[in-house]
Amino acid sequence: MIKEIIHAHITEVIDKLKLKREREYSVEIPNNTEHGDFSTNCAMILAKDNKKAPKSLAEALIKELKKSKNYKKVELAGPGFINFYLSPSFYQRVFSEIRATGAEYATSDFGKGERVLLEFVSANPTGPLNIVSARAAAFGDTLYRVMRRVGFDPAREFYINDAGNQVDILAESLELRLREIQGDRIGEFPYEAYHGEYVKHLAHKLNATDGIRVFMMTEKDRMERLKDFALSELLEMQRNSLERFDVYFDGWVSEKTLRAEGVVEEVLSYLTEADCTYEKEEAIWFASSKYGDDKDRVLMKSDGSITYFVPDLAYHLTKIQRGFDTLIDIFGPDHHGYVPRIRAAFRAMGYDDEMLEIIYLQQVNLFESGERVKMSKRAGKIVTMDDLVSEVGKDAARYFFIARKANAHLNFDLELALKQNNENPVYYCQYAHARICSIIKKARKDKVWPRSFKKDLVKKLTKPEELAIIQRLADLPELLELIAEYREPHRLATYLEELSAIIHRYYARYQIVSAKSKELSLARLMLLDTTKTVMGIVFDLMGISAPEKM
RNA sequence: GCGCCAGUAGCUCAGUAGGAUAGAGCAGCAGCCUUCUAAGCUGCGGGUCAGGGGUUCGAAUCCCUUCUGGCGUGCCA
User: Fold this and answer.
1) Which nucleotide C1' is nearest A302 CA?
2) Distance CA A309, CA A298 (A)
3) Which residues, other chains included, contact A367 with Cβ-Cβ below 8 Å and sequence gap of 6+?
């Protein structure tokens, strides 16, 4: 917000001086506060094109820039940086604007209504959601919320792999457990079957309703019954886990349904028409290597069944057909070898594969007492998303996942996460919010809180910490646009921590309710009131609660 | 072997898409509660940005290369 104003001003001055500006320059907040509140490299960037020395160019610019009342000081520094020191009145004006916008603050039409499909989690419906799914859920959901706020038209979708080998194995595992309950000797439970306790629970539940009837069916009917039962139960379980995590989807797309609708044949015929399939060793292959993949891929196996790839591709095709401009898939780390073939298929079918964007979430390593916990779904040894939410709470879990950038491995120390103390930064941020609420409560109690704040109170806000708070608040609109554009929700966490730090410092240093004058109190209350609103917006984007007290 | 991702303080991680003296939290040390919540604040110590080349006014950031780790490389999903 402030940055844009300064940027626009610089551009105006450059044009006024009739200088060339062919290359982009930046306006930034310097790391070092001695370099001003904002700084630009424009003199260095434009020096070449204008055949002038950076410093003399900067001098000329500064002479013009200084005419604005927005700056207390504009100076030349280093090899040609122009540093701006903003005047309090500038901050105050910015603050008034933020305050006037209220809850709508940091909304924009930046995304221009671009239709974006976010596919995430899409876990196999063969067991409870695990930690990686939790990470994907937090990440995808927050990205969705931010994109929506800045003018994209995003939708969230969950692809259900309810067809294929793993479902057969699931049904067989359930059958074994069911027989076990009914007193059959099943011997050793097969290695490849699903070992988790949840299969036993499912078996008990099914036994209560269907009992022995299951075994009076034909083999085929029985498998269907077992599959349907297990899938609907497990899907419901996953959906509940996600809801506990405040993650909802606009669509749940079933692979089984897609297959039934004939999209598989559709995709096969498209690829055949594009003349990029062939038969070899009784299987049908896709010549994906012609389109950038490192080798060709099987579409139909020699036994006549299709590979996972085909319905998944069909699913992506429906996304395009439904009119989305951009498709974002949020995948786990084990999928990256799979992506080139989807891109290849896009190209083969004549679609622009640039519209498909893949975000890889790296794996989550669980540690317990400094030791890596190995997880295996088959063996039933996993820590579930529900376990996590129960133990550390939704807020901490979401925060933990959002706070790290996507393509970084995430080391999750269970013991540390269990400690609900100051080692967890989410409390630091929530505490800042709670403190503001506490001050406001006190102000109301002491009858300092006004019916409405007079606008010219802003003139009382002159302390460095107060201006720093305003500056951070003013950063939010641009930040959200960057997050949406680069798909980097983790920056919300950094922002929130920085803002919280200033609040804590401010709190420790100044009296609010009983400041030197009533007017000063009111001005500070007004500042905190707006800060509370902005923090509330950020917490909401992260799907984390903004507590009134802690 | 090949491909993708990563390597920043003791630990967990940021680093505003090339900017000035690389930051935060935790852990460690020393202080601060008769005043709106001490889950806080103030100060101190801590770095070969994995190594080496290159590109330029300027590199943690871009390019090349080596090393280390993770994942992938099925007619599994």
Assistant:
1) B75
2) 9
3) A373, A411, A412, A413, A414
Distances (CA, A) of A468 to A95, A350, A526: 11, 52, 15
**A153, A360, A402 from A407: Cα distances, Å:** 25, 6, 12
Angle at A499 between CA A36 and CA A431, to 5 degrees: 155
Give CB contacts under 8 A, 24+ apart, made by A61-68.
A61/A10, A61/A13, A61/A14, A61/A17, A64/A13, A64/A16, A64/A17, A65/A9, A65/A10, A65/A13, A68/A9
Q: Do A548 and A434 meet the contact criterion of CB atoms below 8 Å apart?
A: yes
* Bigger pLDDT: A374 vs A123: A123
Pairing of strands A297-300, A283-286: antiparallel
Cβ-contact A132, A343 below 8 angstroms: no
Measuring from the CA of residue A433 to each C1' atom, give the nucleotide at the shortest distance: B37
CB neighbourhood size of A43 (10 A): 28
CA distance A99 to A118: 32
Nucleotide nearest to A281 (CA to C1'): B75
For the stretch A309-339, pLDDT in tens is 999 999 999 999 999 999 999 998 888 888 8
CA atoms within 13 A on the CB side of A193: 17
Domains and CATH numbers, chain A: 2-86 (3.30.1360.70), 127-142+160-248+366-418 (3.40.50.620), 422-542 (1.10.730.10)
List the A443 CA – B34 C1' distance (angstroms): 20
DSSP conformation letters of A67-82: TSTTEEEEEEETTTEE
Maximum pairwise Cα distance, chain A: 92
| Whether pLDDT at A379 is above 90 | no
